[in-house]
């Protein structure tokens, strides 16, 4: 019985050893994992920084009447586009027409008095030569003529003012743009220079205001000169990336002492009305020009707590972990400020197949930029 038991244990041990040997032989024969590898790029690059901005209209008008009166007509559709000079509101003009007629009558009376005064002054001139009137009477008639002339001037000014008031009963758009809602409707009293009728904002182009810290401002000054205004990229909430293009046209003349920031302004075309005053916007502005930037695909950069690293492939196709100092992103690429040099090969796809440094891989060379790979495939 003991002999049979020993024989059985020996057989089991031999079987286990054979199985282990087979497993090791299979492990040794497993092919290395296939990963995509790209060469590190080194080329001139412009670095862009992201900012949060707010959209504003270049021209904003709060429309108030210049004369008082009861509103007779609202001549626009709320929210529509209007042109400069379009009629927006009409105030009852009848009291102002009456004032215009009264001013016309005052002017006619004053002109009549002036005609009489001039005639008497001319007659006094002849009478003085023949010594038929005294010098005092001659001076009195000339003074009457001058007083009548002043009365005519005053009457003409009063008539001009009455005509202006009559004209102001027709409230027109002072700028072209989009009109807001009517704050007062027909039949209500509008007080001169007080009652808010509506608001009007220009729509094309639009301004985007954003603020930058002092360090970024100093770095970006070379891009903004009287002869050169740099391009900026703008994106709105819900839009992927920065699909809109504008131009930087203004930098404030002082920094905000409370926040340590300075204000920038960009002008952006708005022919379709995409931008509305008050919207938040994402802005990208060029801040640094590098003559030689080391660039890698952002998918190749991994994070270990606060450290960033990539997997470098050596001449024997073995991977090694390399810590890097990453800078700003440029679309799909990341600027590497320290840790890599051009021409080195790094893993960009298949990183999940690498369990430890020193693993041998089967590299497949691809382009660092995805669009470059797409162009090669299209050419084939």
Automatic annotation (TrEMBL):
Multidrug resistance protein MdtA-like beta-barrel domain spans which residues? 205-286
Domain Multidrug resistance protein MdtA-like barrel-sandwich hybrid, residue spans: 59-198
Q: Which domain of life is it from?
A: Bacteria
Q: Which GO terms describe its biological process?
A: response to antibiotic
Q: Is the keyword Lipid metabolism in the record?
A: no
> In the record, which residues are listed under signal peptide?
1-18
**Residue span(s) of domain Multidrug resistance protein MdtA-like C-terminal permuted SH3:** 293-353
Q: What is this protein called?
A: Multidrug efflux system membrane fusion protein
The lineage is: Bacteria, Pseudomonadati, Pseudomonadota, Gammaproteobacteria, Cellvibrionales
């Amino acid at each position: 019985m003991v002999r049979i038991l020993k024989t059985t244990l020996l057989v089991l041990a031999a079987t286990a050893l054979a199985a282990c040997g087979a497993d090791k032989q299979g492990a040794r024969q497993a092919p290395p994992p296939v990963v995509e590898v790209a060469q590190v790029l080194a080329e001139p690059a412009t670095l862009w920084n992201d900012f949060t901005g707010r959209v504003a209209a270049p021209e904003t008008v709060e429309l108030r009447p210049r004369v008082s009166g009861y509103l007779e007509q609202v001549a626009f559709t709320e929210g529509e586009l209007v042109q400069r000079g379009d009629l927006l509101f009409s105030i009852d003009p009848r009291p102002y027409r009456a004032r215009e007629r009264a001013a016309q009558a005052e002017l006619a009376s004053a002109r009549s008095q002036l005609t009489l005064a001039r005639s008497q002054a001319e007659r006094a001139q002849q009478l003085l030569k023949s010594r038929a009137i005294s010098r005092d009477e001659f001076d009195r008639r000339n003074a009457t003529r001058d007083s009548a002339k002043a009365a005519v001037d005053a009457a003409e000014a009063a008539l001009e003012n009455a005509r202006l008031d009559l004209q102001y009963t027709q409230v027109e758009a002072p700028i072209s743009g989009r009109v807001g809602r009517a704050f007062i409707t027909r039949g209500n009293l509008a007080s001169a220079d007080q009652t808010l009728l509506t608001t009007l904002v220009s729509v094309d182009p639009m301004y985007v205001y954003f603020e930058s810290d002092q360090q970024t401002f100093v770095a970006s000054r070379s891009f903004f000169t009287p002869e050169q205004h740099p391009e900026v990229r703008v994106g709105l909430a819900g839009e992927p990336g920065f699909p809109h293009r504008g131009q930087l046209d203004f930098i404030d003349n002082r920094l905000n002492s409370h926040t340590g920031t300075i204000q920038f302004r960009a002008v952006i075309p708005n022919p379709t009305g995409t931008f509305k005053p008050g919207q938040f916007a994402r802005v990208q502005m060029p801040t640094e020009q590098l003559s030689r930037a080391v660039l890698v695909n952002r998918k190749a950069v991994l994070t270990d707590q606060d450290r960033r690293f990539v997997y470098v492939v050596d001449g024997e196709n073995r991977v090694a972990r390399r810590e890097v100092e990453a800078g700003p992103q440029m679309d799909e690429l990341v600027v590497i400020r320290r840790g890599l040099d051009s021409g080195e090969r790094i893993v960009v796809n298949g990183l999940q197949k690498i369990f430890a440094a020193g693993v041998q891989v089967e590299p497949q060379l691809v382009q660092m930029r995805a669009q470059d790979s797409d162009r090669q495939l299209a050419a084939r």
